[in-house]
Amino acid sequence: MTLNTGLDRKAASTEAVVRVTGIWERQRGHTMWKRGLFTLLLMSIGLGGPLEAEDQPLEAIRREVDEPHHLPAEKPRKPKREKHPCRPRNEITFSWSRSPGEDATADDSDADSFAGWVVLGGLTAPWWGPHVLLEDEDAGAAQFPVAPYADGADGYLRFDDETADAKAWGGRFSVDAASDFDGITTMAGRLRLDSVFRLGIDTEWAHLQARPGADSLTAGDFNLVVRFAQSPRVQFHSGLGLNWLGDRGSSDFGWNFTYGVDLFPVEPVVVSTTIDLGKVGDASLIHLRSTLGVMITPRVHLYSGYDLRDYEGTTVHSLLTGMEIWF
After folding, report:
1. What are the pLDDT digits (tens) for 252-274?
2. Domain definitions of the chain by residue range
3. CB 209 within 8 A of CB 184
4. Does the pTM of the predicted model rise above 0.85?
5. What superfamily would CATH give domain 150-326?
6. Can you list the pairs that 50-59 forms with residues at least 24 positions away whose Cβ atoms lie under 8 Å?
7. Beta strands 283-295 and 300-311: pairing type?
8. Cis peptide before 100 (omega within 30 of 0)
9. Is 320 helix (H, G, I), strand (E, B) or coil?
10. Nearest 5°: CA angle at 178, between 174 and 179?
11. Whole-number Cα distances in Å, 267 to 58, 271, 301
12. Nearest CA among 200, 203, 268, 204 for reference residue 235
């Protein structure tokens, strides 16, 4: 009787331990499930950190500029074929007649040369094309009025020496604000100087802000440009320079190529388009800017337009509006 009672007590104790262990395991499982659900909820609303950084364009731009982009590894070269052991190294042969194959080779060479000139002409067409269409060799040196359409002039440049207010140089300064309507605003300023010698300066500064006090970048460029095609109503510019990106006390630099056109089709309309291609830090850069505006005073014109900035595939599209002062 005593032995059976001891066994019953031992079995009851074992059963109680199992029950307590099961309850603890279920509570632990519920706790882990709740923790996982809470973590996913935080990440989905942007409190998880890494997801928010990936979704921010300015952080992506910073990463593209600072991190080097490695080129793919080169494929191993095939081993060179060994020369025939019985063939002399310096073998001289003479031919007394021209085979049909040589005629075909000469024709192919001429065709390749012609195709090369066609490709070269197409690549340089953005420069020689406007020059051929616009330039007037008898027009003389260009002069600059105080502003487009000043004193009833056609367009901007003048090619006569009788205008008293014409100058040997001209300039303009603009300020504008832009937004991508997704949290990024841009404040920018631009200075452009031109001269009778067709040489000028084109420089720009821009401040990109994600949210007030959240994240920001500063970008800009400085270019020496040439006015390679001109008429009173159309002027083309192109040049080289450098661009930079400022971030948290440090700066990255790179080269820049710029190409632009200014149109003065009819008073008081002013149209401008500029594209920049280059590199800053370890990232490629594409900057496109196009505006349409009207002169509201003899020296001031208001404009609106489109601005695109692309850093190694990270793109910010913005609509802008601003004011430009001519001097």
Report:
1. 999 999 999 999 999 999 999 99
2. 150-326
3. yes
4. no
5. Autotransporter beta-domain (2.40.128.130)
6. 56/210, 56/215, 57/184, 57/210, 57/314, 57/315, 57/316, 58/184, 58/208, 58/210, 58/215, 58/216, 58/217, 59/215
7. antiparallel
8. no
9. strand
10. 175
11. 40, 11, 12
12. 200
